[in-house]
Write a structure and sequence with these properties.
The protein is α+β, with helices and mostly antiparallel strands. It contains 12 helices and 5 strands. It has a 5-stranded mixed beta sheet with strand order 1-2-3-5-4, covered by helices on one side. Strand 2 and strand 3 form a beta hairpin. Helix 5 runs antiparallel to helix 6, helix 6 packs antiparallel against helix 7 and helix 7 runs antiparallel to helix 8. The relative contact order is 0.06.
Length: 399
């Protein structure tokens, strides 16, 4: 628990700081550690000289730009360390042994940065060069000749730094690819959902236009009959009604031509609740035992709302046949209430059907329900199986 809290805290700090700020913080931490090392233990007897503190700053400052130019930073640190260890007059270089651990740590950080931010070949070359350079230069910073143990430890540290950098680079690339793929899939899902919703809205509009056009044709026929039998001035008014109705039908045909694309225009009445019996009979013919239950006083809902009910039941039964594994029974229930109609389609198949949760069938049903100020609820039923429940605003006559 404590490690998790610390990791979350560090991740929060990392997220709030940019690369430059994190590098500056690293330099500050290393500086504090180096000063503490110089003033404790065996170093307490020899107070750090001004030249030692100066070289401490010189070795740490390049790390601030390690992300922008990692190869240049590594090369400059190697050159500075070599100059401090080999070629400076007495008094200008650090006290022997005081900055050797810090210089080694700084070089390993620089090597790891090269392995993280540059191609893998650069990290391997840097590891080979630094591994050979360390025993020849850096370990001579300490009194005495470097022994086999010191050389081995240095080579192991160099390999560990390079491998850590390469692993970090690989992991970042993997995580980045996963994030990119997740974002791409999420974009595709949202785009497909928008396309499906637009197609379903266009289909709803086409069907409702069919309903309106059919009703207009009936109105025109009634107006023509009234004009032929009614005395003046009523016959003139009826002829005007008929003419207006024909004009409206022509405009509807024009609109339908835009909505249907290459689909054939059909002026036949759309199905409604009366056709649910035929739909259920077709479902039974496929082997799924289906029944229709109607509760409440049945009333006229209007052709548009009845068409919506029919399409919702049709899509729900289609989903049962496609996705309900092991389903043998299904029930369609219509519950007439005051100002509302509840439509429920339930089956006894397996409750977990991920394809239905994100499928386009539910999107279409939701669009149809929303057209009549309705709500859609779909998911596993408490008694098992899958259930689709739609509550529609259904006043008398569909008004």
């Amino acid at each position: 628990m404590l490690m998790s809290i610390i990791a979350d805290w560090l991740a929060g700090i990392r997220a709030r700081l940019d690369g430059f700020a994190r590098d500056a913080l690293l330099v500050l931490v290393l500086a504090v550690a180096a000063v503490a090392h110089l003033s404790t233990g065996v170093q307490r007897t020899a107070v750090a000289s001004a030249s030692t503190l100066l070289w401490l700053a010189i070795l740490l400052c390049p790390l601030i730009g390690r992300r922008r130019a990692p190869i240049a930073v590594l090369a400059s640190l190697m050159a500075l360390s070599a100059a401090a260890a080999l070629g400076l007059p007495t008094g200008l270089g650090p006290v022997p042994g005081q900055l050797a651990p810090l210089a080694g740590g700084v070089l390993l950080v620089a090597l790891a940065t090269v392995a993280v931010h540059r191609p893998r070949a650069f990290g391997l070359i840097g590891a080979v060069v630094l591994g050979a350079w360390g025993p020849a230069v850096l370990l001579r910073w300490s009194p005495g000749e470097p022994g086999p143990i010191g050389v081995g430890l240095w080579c192991c540290a160099v390999v560990a730094a390079a491998l850590a950098g390469m692993y970090t680079q690989t992991r970042r690339a993997y995580v980045g690819a996963l994030r990119e793929r997740a974002a791409h899939l999420e974009h595709e899902r949202d785009q497909q959902a928008r396309i499906t919703a637009a197609e379903e809205r266009a289909r709803i509009a086409r069907e409702l236009h069919d309903v309106v056009s059919h009703n207009l044709a009936v109105i025109v026929a009634l107006a023509d009959g009234a004009a032929a039998t009614a005395p003046d001035p009523g016959s003139g008014l009826m002829r005007q009604v008929a003419s207006t109705g024909r004009q409206a039908i022509d405009e509807m045909r024009l609109i339908l031509g835009l909505l249907r694309d290459d689909e054939a225009v059909s002026w036949s009445p759309q199905p409604g609740i009366a056709q649910l019996g035929d739909l259920i009979a077709e479902t039974r013919a496929t082997g799924l035992l289906t029944r229709l239950v109607v509760t409440g006083p049945r009333r006229d809902l209007g052709p548009g709302l009845e068409l919506t009910v029919y399409r919702i039941v049709q899509e729900a039964l289609t989903n049962v046949r496609k996705h309900a594994r092991g389903a043998t029974h299904a029930q369609v229930r219509l519950d007439y209430r005051d100002e509302h109609l509840e439509v429920e389609v339930a089956d006894d198949g397996r409750a977990a059907r991920p394809g239905d949760v994100v499928g386009h069938g539910l999107t279409g049903m939701g669009e149809r329900a929303a057209a009549f100020v309705g709500t859609l609820d779909a998911g596993p039923a408490a008694e098992g199986g899958w259930r689709v429940r739609v509550l529609l605003t259904a006043p008398e006559g569909g008004r």
